[in-house]
């Protein structure tokens, strides 16, 4: 199912996902493979789209990413004000 939202930016966690992925020395492909062990199936290209804010992220996906990256979910949110 396509995740289409009418916003220019599709998520607020992309930059932090990339930051922590790189700190853990994981490639996008490796993160994708680790997500599969949590029954989350996101291809390498979709990881790239998440990191560039072009794809939405579900709560299940975010929970698995936080676990793999070994950070609290809150840590993945950008510092921003509403």
Task: Give the topology, please.
Layout: H1 14-23, H2 28-36, H3 44-51, H4 59-69
Can you tell me about this structure?
This protein has 82 residues and is an all-alpha fold. 46% of the residues lie in helices and 0% in strands. The protein has helices at 14-23, 28-36, 44-51, 59-69. Helix 2 crosses helix 3 (44-51). The longest helix is centred in the last third of the chain and has 11 residues, at 59-69. The model has no long low-confidence stretch (mean pLDDT 90).
Notable traits:
about 80 residues, mainly alpha, 434 Repressor (Amino-terminal Domain), about 0% strand
- Radius of gyration, in angstroms, nearest whole number: 12 Å
- Largest sheet at a glance? none
CATH topology label? 434 Repressor (Amino-terminal Domain)
Low-confidence stretches: none
How many DSSP H or I helices?
4
Beta strand count:
0
Terminal CA distance reads: 29 Å
Structural category = mainly alpha
Supply the CATH class: Mainly Alpha
Helix content class: 40-55%
Query: What percent strand?
Result: under 5%
Number of domains: 1
The averaged pLDDT comes out at 90
Q: How would you spell out the order of helices and strands?
A: HHHH
- What sort of overall outline do the alpha carbons produce when their principal axes are compared? globular
**CATH superfamily heading:** lambda repressor-like DNA-binding domains
CATH architecture: Orthogonal Bundle
């Amino acid at each position: 199912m396509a995740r289409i939202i009418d916003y220019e930016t599709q998520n607020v966690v992309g930059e932090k996902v990339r930051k922590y992925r790189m700190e853990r020395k994981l490639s996008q492909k490796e993160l994708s493979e680790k997500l599969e062990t949590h029954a989350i199936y996101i291809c390498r290209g979709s990881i790239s789209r998440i990191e560039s804010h072009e794809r939405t992220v579900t709560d299940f996906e975010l929970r698995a990413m936080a676990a793999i990256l070994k950070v609290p979910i809150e840590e993945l949110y950008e510092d921003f004000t509403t």
